[in-house]
Amino acid sequence: NRRIVLAARPRGEPVPEDFRLEEVPRPEPAEGQILLRNLYLSLDPYMRGRMSEGPSYVEPVALGAVMGGATVARVALSRHPDFKPGDLVTGFGEWQDYALSDGTNLTRLGPDFAHPSYALSVLGMPGFTAWHGLLTIGEPKAGETLVVASASGPVGAVVGQIAKLKSCRVVGIAGGADKCRFVTDELGFDACIDRRDPAFAEALRRAVPDGIDIYYENVGGPVFDAVLPLLNVHARIPVCGLIAHYNDTAPPPGPDRLPRLAYTLLVKRIRMQGFIISDHYGPEFAAFLDAMKAWVAEGQVKLREDIVDGLENAPNAFIGLLRGENFGKLVIRIAP
Ligand code: NDP
Which Pfam families would you find in this protein's record (predicted)? Predict the structure, then answer.
């Protein structure tokens, strides 16, 4: 059983030496337990926060402990009355080949789950994050303009496609021409601006002639600096993520932006609200899953996956995620 543990706490950007691949004996299920063969592991930006010490909304991973993450797994052995070998399940697991479970907090993936890894993206946590933040905080109305960054990733892609279904004008922001082409041509956004373009702020301004009514915040940093002057009166800002800052070790250079932000919120009567998706599971997740399964089946919501083979490649893939090297939902395929 191979597993990846946290070897050191990163200073700034994580490096390969912050992780360690270990080999331990495969665990044996006791009565009432199942042995899971992990097939897919989701890599997500929030994992950077768990690598650091200090207060946050999730516990840090202890040094030497196995890195955690959502998985799709197949039941390999069962000593549990409700599971049989071959069943496909999803749940919160670890960066490892095999795991034991007593069945609690596992969700079975039925035959309607034609594409099991989607349980980690469009039909799972990132898709639900997009749904909740956009519909509950963003409150999109027909004809409004929405802007979202990391637009080719699982959260941004789903935000933009739901906003299109709600008849908004949708402008994506992504890193590079290939990602932007995908966002407009495949996902159907009205426009997409390359955040790496030196003239980015001006290009964004031209792409939103009527201003911005909803800015779905995934990144922060220079993208937010460009968005702020373009916000309309009564704009809404669901604050979902700030990936441009996850590796920060010091405040960003430049002037203190807080007074200008507060003044803009005041005079334009803007609502800016953060949320953490783990607070919202329950009936809302069931409603999301029903709607999203139908949209995916009808081709109204599409998702690109960036599948990397081999558990041993998870650390480098994760380091790349924080640099924008992934193109689509980053998933590690641990076993075929
Ligand atoms: P993605 O798969 O889209 O991956 C992250 C992307 O962020 C990169 O591909 C890159 O896209 C972009 N990025 C990386 N560094 C920077 C930077 N310095 N400045 C601007 N963009 C950058 O991630 P997800 O869709 O899974 O997550 C999107 C956001 O949502 C994250 O901030 C995440 O933390 C947050 N989130 C929050 C949740 C909550 O409960 N509040 C739950 C789930 C996710 P590109 O190269 O195209 O710019």
Answer: ADH_N_2, ADH_zinc_N
Atom of ligand 1 nearest to the CA of 244: 18
Two structure tokens written together for 179: 């990602």
Rounded to a whole number of angstroms, the CA Rg of the chain reads 21
Asked if residues 83 and 34 have their Cβ atoms less than 8 Å apart, the reply is yes
Q: Does any ligand 1 atom lie closer than 6 A to the CB of residue 48?
A: no
Q: Could you tell me the domains of the chain?
A: 2-121+304-333 (3.90.180.10), 125-278 (3.40.50.720)
Q: pLDDT per residue over 167-197, tens digit each?
A: 999 999 999 999 999 999 999 999 999 999 9
| Residue nearest (by alpha carbon) to ligand 1 atom 21 | 219
The three-class DSSP label of residue 271 is strand
Q: Is 98 helix (H, G, I), strand (E, B) or coil?
A: strand
Whether ipTM tops 0.85, in short, is yes
The per-residue pLDDT for range 258-293, each reduced to its tens digit, is 999 999 999 999 999 999 999 999 999 999 999 999
Give the mutation target among 159, 243, 305 for probing the ligand 1 site: most ligand atoms within 8 A of CB.
243
Alpha-carbon distance of 125 to 68, in angstroms, equals 14
SS3 322: coil
Element spanning 91, H or E:
strand 88-94
What residue type is assigned to position 110 of the chain?
G
Ligand 1, closest atom to CA 129? 42
Q: What number does the ligand 1 atom closest to the CA of 329 have? A: 2
DSSP 223-261: HHHHHGGGEEEEEEEEE---GGGTT-SSPPSSS--HHHH
**Nearest alpha carbon, ligand 1 atom 45:** 175
